[in-house]
Amino acid sequence: MGYTILEQTGRFLAQLLTKPSPGYEPFAPIPVERLLGVLEPGDIILVEGHQYVSSAIKYLTMSTWSHAAMYVGEIEGAEEADGEPHRLIEVLIGPGCITAPLSKYDCHNIRICRPVGLTKEDREAVVNYMRERIGLKYDLKNVFDLLRYLFPTPPIPVRFRRRMIALGSGDPTRAICSTLIAQAFQHVRYPILPKIERVEQKAGGDRSNYTRQEILHIRHHSLFAPRDFDLSPYFAVIKPTIHFGFDYKGLVWHEPEEESGIGS
């Protein structure tokens, strides 16, 4: 099937945007085996990317997290050549919504965010929502939006950056990483960072007796960025190194050799 000029240009630019940028170094990579010991379906893995496009997302969102993927457990029929099963669903520039192995991010700085109190039924619904969208296209309009932030530009006021990350054409057959995950949770009405409206209601006949109620308003899914799962008060941060207990006394430290004196 042929591609339009816009799509061909978008694919070419996507290859440029996804090239690794130099100088990336993970501070605390987590082995796959340890991740498997703590991850649960529905967990969000935030990634500090090291591609050129990551710089644009970090700038617009004022965060170190430039990508988000969902852990869904083993995906039947999806595995690496060495037999490692795919357990992640993510959206990438170019390929769109795909599956991936956990080892893909074992050399990246990551954060695990877990929805607190999510029922078993809703957890399954969230995971199934993602599974059913494997194969969706990436919204190539995002490529042009992100590209302009890689060049020197005047500083963008903070209050406008959230709107600028609201990328995409609105085509339901296309998606970007954090917005698709946001839609999955909105599908079961689980909050991420909703707008909160505080209203006062009169209780009883006494005019001076009022109660305050918080009403949540759903944000449009296009306004969500990877960092929102980290900032959300409804997602817990899971750290594998301390999840099952941590004893700093058992650490083995390198003891530098004493330097000899000058002239010795």
Please tell me about this protein's structure.
The structure is a single chain. By secondary structure, the chain is an alpha+beta fold. It has a single domain (5-250), classed as Alpha-Beta Complex (endopeptidase fold (from Nostoc punctiforme)). The protein has helices spanning 5-17, 32-36, 52-61, 120-131, 141-147, 158-164, 177-186, 227-231, 240-243; strands spanning 44-47, 67-71, 88-92, 96-100, 110-115, 137-138, 174-175, 195-202, 210-217, 235-238. Strands 4-3-2-1-5-10 form a six-stranded antiparallel beta sheet. The chain has a two-stranded parallel sheet with strand order 6-7. Helix 1 packs across helix 5 (141-147) and helix 4 runs antiparallel to helix 7 (177-186). The longest helix is centred in the first third of the chain and has 13 residues, at 5-17.
List the helices and strands and how they pair.
Blueprint: H1 5-17, H2 32-36, E1 44-47, H3 52-61, E2 67-71, E3 88-92, E4 96-100, E5 110-115, H4 120-131, E6 137-138, H5 141-147, H6 158-164, E7 174-175, H7 177-186, E8 195-202, E9 210-217, H8 227-231, E10 235-238, H9 240-243
Parallel strand pairs: 6-7
Antiparallel strand pairs: 1-2, 1-5, 2-3, 3-4, 5-10, 8-9
Helix pairs in contact: 1-5, 4-7
